[in-house]
Write a structure and sequence with these properties.
This protein has 154 residues and is an alpha+beta fold. It is 38% helix and 29% strand. It folds into two domains: 95 residues, Immunoglobulin-like; 55 residues.
């Protein structure tokens, strides 16, 4: 039986994904969480996701979520987790030796990026105000010219 699936880990330590057997589209597959190669938890991939149904992945009821246990991280911060369908050897998702230390680096990078974006937004706002001021000055100059011309006729 062919098993296909995807997963991703969010910043809170939850793994969200889906698992499906195209040869048995109505089957609900049991998925197991492996920590350092040992099955620690099992869940049935049976939650509904509209995007799965839209992509033709059965009826869309093939999603699951696992909360990663704290022991997924070894000393030194390396993570070792994988997912596979119960009864199958093939892993369809694996956490690639992530480190909790990356989180702080990533947070700092995101904060710097956010500051840069805010600075650019401020500069764009100032530029827009300058354009509006230029436009207003041109309109006043045209009005002054019209008044001068109209005053010359009187």
């Amino acid at each position: 039986m062919l098993i296909t699936g995807e997963a991703h880990c969010d910043t809170e330590g939850a793994v969200h994904g889906w698992c499906w057997a195209p040869d048995m589209p109505a089957a609900r597959i049991k998925v197991e969480l492996l920590i350092r190669g040992i099955a620690t938890r099992t869940v049935v991939a049976s939650r509904f996701r509209e995007d799965l149904r839209e992509r033709g992945i059965g009826d869309g009821y093939h999603a699951f979520t696992f909360i990663l246990p704290p022991d997924v991280y070894e000393t030194g911060g390396r993570a070792h987790a994988a997912l596979r369908a119960v009864g199958h050897d093939a892993v369809f998702w694996q956490m690639n030796a992530l480190s909790r230390a990356i989180d702080d680096t990533l947070k700092t990078s995101i904060q710097r990026l956010n500051t840069a974006i805010q600075d650019m937004a401020g500069a764009i706002s100032q530029l827009e105000r300058a354009r509006q001021t230029d436009s207003l000055a041109r309109n006043f100059a045209r009005l002054a010219e019209r008044l001068r011309v109209a005053g010359g006729r009187a």
